[in-house]
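Extended Data, panel c. Modelled sequence:
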Amino acid sequence: MEAFLKRYIKDYTYLALVAGLVVGLDQLTKYWVRSNIQLGDTWMPWEWLAPYARFVHWYNTGVAFGMFQGRGMVFTILAFLVAGAIIFYFPNVPSQDWSLRLAMGLQLGGALGNLIDRLTIGHVTDFISVGNFPVFNIADSSITVGVGVLLLGIWFQERAEKKRLDEETSVQNPAGSGMDTTGNGGLS
């Protein structure tokens, strides 16, 4: 029982640290934007970045990138469900699967960061504007980066599995062993 509890504490500590870091950074930056930039105004700390990147105080009642505006309650419920699923499933992820664990922590942090906004102010504060891309925030970025980490981890795992299978095949059928691997009895 003690080993079981130790594992759960270790797993949830990791998840809480990753998600907590995201939520903290997300809420801190949103608070700064709400306190220092009027809604709809733009702040450009470096003029040379003006055509490419700027801070814009905006709000969003939909989801990431301004989609599905006005459906905040649906996304509030969805955020609770996603957070619950991540928290429930996380201890089942092997500790060696760093990419899935990191991705889940980033996605939980992003979901909670935007959920806090929805519950406290009724909408999500967005402020990062890059080119013509929709305005977003740290929580949105965390969710997107989490998906990228997940996909990258899957790609690495597939490559490792393919390499392992190739090595097993080469051990079972070593080249130059005189064995016929063509299946036609050595006839050409």
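The chain has a mean pLDDT of 86. This feature is highlighted in the accompanying rendering.
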